[in-house]
């Protein structure tokens, strides 16, 4: 028998290698071959994600519920809880509920305001401006002390020389014209434009802090700083007056004499009134800050607004414009130096301040909530 016939005989005797097994035969199953119905007849090859020898994984795993989730993926509910830093309180409206506010929104607002105030009052530039404002009444008091004995001096100098409390009103009269408005303009004008220039505005809005809430925080911060500016000037002038000049019953502009306690109360009323006037100017600066990403532009624009208003009210032919100009009402705090207090003029001034806040606050809100934040 030839070699070819021998191979053909062996192949016939053993049968087809992959054909169906005959009765009594048992064939070794192929690894990975599938039986009818889709089940595997043997061990399946390793897929991506199964561990190789040595314990290392060859790819991402598909994990079931309750196991470790994919790195970098945080559920929304967990994000909200981590932002609020506290577990939800039973009975309190949650996200998407009818209340429309997250738990602890008021506390988050106060934290944001506290952080903004801390940054403002810790900034060396702002501390330097407050220091300059505190020094000016001292210089004014020393100058008045040196020249009070000269003949021909009257008016404010005589009033201050006769009572140290009057130095507070004199200092506010000097500084309200320009230096205090410039100081307030620097802080309020830098509120939004400074954040945009530094590239931190978009991160503040992603905190999350809504645009309206952030705008309110910025304005309240400027209001507190305005009151601080007025209080620093008044406190410095009051202490300087008590040291350099005699203190006793205060003679008002109307000729009436009131007690020291009544005089101190009138000083407090003056601080509140002038602080409200500076807060109205802060609204103007904030509106200008919403239109630019360069803080110096908003600051300069506010200072120009003040200077132009001062010039217009000084022109006799433009007296008709005076009631509508903000600086016109800053000096109406002299109503506290009359007996009784000129509450009508001061109340009208407060209404003008409120109108400026409403007008320029609305402008700032419309601009800030409608523009694209690119930095």
What features would you describe in this structure?
By secondary structure, this protein is mainly alpha-helical. Helix content is about 60%, strand content about 0%. A hairpin with a 5-residue loop joins strand 1 and strand 2 (about 255-260). Helix 4 (about 125-145) packs across helix 6 (about 165-175), helix 4 (about 125-145) runs antiparallel to helix 7 (about 180-200) and helix 6 crosses helix 9. The longest helix is centred in the middle third of the chain and has 34 residues, at about 210-245. The termini are far apart.
Question: What key phrases describe this protein's structure?
Answer:
375 residues; mainly alpha; two-stranded antiparallel sheet; 2 strands
């Amino acid at each position: 028998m030839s070699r070819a016939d021998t191979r053909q005989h062996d192949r016939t005797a053993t049968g087809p290698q992959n054909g169906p097994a005959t009765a009594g035969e048992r064939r070794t199953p192929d690894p990975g071959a599938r039986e009818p119905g889709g089940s595997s007849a043997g061990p399946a090859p390793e897929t991506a994600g199964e561990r190789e020898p040595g314990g290392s994984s060859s790819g991402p795993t598909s994990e079931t519920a309750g196991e470790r989730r994919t790195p970098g993926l945080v559920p929304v509910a967990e994000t909200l809880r981590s932002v609020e830093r506290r577990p939800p309180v039973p009975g309190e409206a949650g996200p998407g509920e009818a209340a429309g506010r997250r738990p602890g929104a008021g506390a988050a607002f106060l934290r944001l305001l506290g952080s903004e105030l801390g940054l403002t009052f810790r900034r060396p530039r702002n501390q330097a401006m407050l220091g300059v404002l505190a020094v000016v009444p001292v210089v004014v008091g020393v100058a008045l002390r040196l020249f009070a004995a000269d003949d021909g001096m009257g008016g404010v100098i005589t009033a201050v020389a006769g009572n140290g409390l009057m130095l507070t009103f004199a200092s506010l009269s000097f500084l309200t014209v320009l230096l205090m408005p410039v100081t307030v303009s620097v802080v309020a004008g830098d509120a939004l434009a400074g954040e945009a220039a530094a590239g931190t505005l978009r991160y503040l809005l992603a905190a999350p802090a809504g645009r309206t809430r952030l705008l309110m925080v910025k304005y309240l911060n400027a209001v507190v700083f305005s009151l601080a500016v007025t209080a620093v000037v008044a406190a410095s002038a009051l202490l300087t007056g008590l040291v350099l000049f005699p203190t006793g019953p205060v003679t008002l502009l109307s000729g009436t004499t009131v007690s020291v306690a009544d005089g101190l109360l009138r000083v407090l009323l003056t601080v509140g009134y002038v602080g409200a006037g500076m807060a109205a100017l802060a609204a103007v600066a904030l509106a200008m800050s919403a239109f630019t990403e360069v803080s110096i532009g908003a600051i300069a624009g506010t200072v120009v607004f003040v200077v132009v208003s001062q010039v217009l009210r000084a022109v006799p032919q433009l007296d008709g414009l005076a009631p509508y100009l903000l600086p016109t009402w800053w000096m109406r705090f002299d109503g506290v130096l009359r007996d009784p207090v000129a509450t009508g003029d001061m109340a009208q001034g407060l209404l003008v301040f409120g109108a400026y806040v409403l007008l320029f606050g609305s402008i700032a809100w419309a601009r800030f909530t409608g523009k694209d934040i690119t930095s």
